[in-house]
Amino acid sequence: MERKLRWGILGCAGIAVRAVIPGLQQSERNVVAAIASRDADKAKETAERLGIERAYGSYEALLADDTIDAVYVPLPNHLHLPWTIRAAEAGKHVLCEKPIALDAAEAARMVEVCRDKGVHLAEAFMYRHHPRYRMIRQMVESGEIGEVRGIHGAFTFNNAANHTNIRYRRDWGGGSVYDVGCYPISAARLVLGQEPEAATAHAFFSPEHDGVDMMASGLVEFAGGVALTFDCGMWAYSRNTLEVLGTQASIEVPSAFVAGPDGGYNFFVVSKDGRREIEVPRGNQYALQGDEFAATVLDGETPAFGPEDAVRNMKVIDAVLRSASERARIVI
């Protein structure tokens, strides 16, 4: 029988309960064996509801469980660094929710510690593990849409009425760039296969929400006059799209980052010949993320996205946030 990776979940966050745990449970090579919360009753209730073997009343107790191979960290952004390091020191591989840290320096520290402890570290950008992004990259690289002239990404939602949400705590790493702007930034880097040179951003910082950026618009410059334009927000109508514009055609991805567990992954190519729908294989992107992680840990396969990629993405986020704050163009 093929060995499976045994997971512990550090916290009962919504993203863990709604998406990551079910995805791991649907995957081929992973088992969710334990969950922890600082509230023991909450951990127990969540474990019973999701069919998880063990529940712990502290993160420390889960990390002390020798049967756990890997942990998923869905905690608020300011806790990613300390708990990733503690997990690595306990010999656990780590899947950390995005953004991996509060800045590139923190991310680099996490990468360094995990490397020293011999554990795998990955950032939980689930969307890029689905085959549709390999299909999009191949289409771009083949020249099917001509030369790339620009990319536009949008990721917005409206949750502004929930003033107690952790996304609205400045000291916890709140704000729309951290929460959703990181997706189009990551996607542009992925599609173009290169790192940007500079960033400029403008943001709406809301006094009602601890001064975090509730909406941001940005320009991220790549070589050759190509740029990503993006907007992200937590006080705006919901959108979740990506467009890659070429000289001969454009690629439209309507559910670019968040899609249904088994559908909604198709995208479109628009050209002088019309709008053509590209059929994409079904598959839960959270399950695919888990199986790729397991292949790295259990089989020694090279990860599609190494931990250094997370540091490079944070460098762009750092520049975007600094630009929005200083109202200036920031060279990366």
Automatic annotation (TrEMBL):
Residues 133-252 form the GFO/IDH/MocA-like oxidoreductase domain. It comes from Cohnella rhizosphaerae. Transmembrane segments: none annotated. GO terms for molecular function: nucleotide binding; oxidoreductase activity. It holds the Pfam family GFO_IDH_MocA_C3. PANTHER family: OXIDOREDUCTASES (PTHR22604), TRANS-1,2-DIHYDROBENZENE-1,2-DIOL DEHYDROGENASE (PTHR22604:SF105). Keywords: Oxidoreductase. Belongs to the Gfo/Idh/MocA family. Residues 5-122 form the Gfo/Idh/MocA-like oxidoreductase N-terminal domain. This is Gfo/Idh/MocA family oxidoreductase.
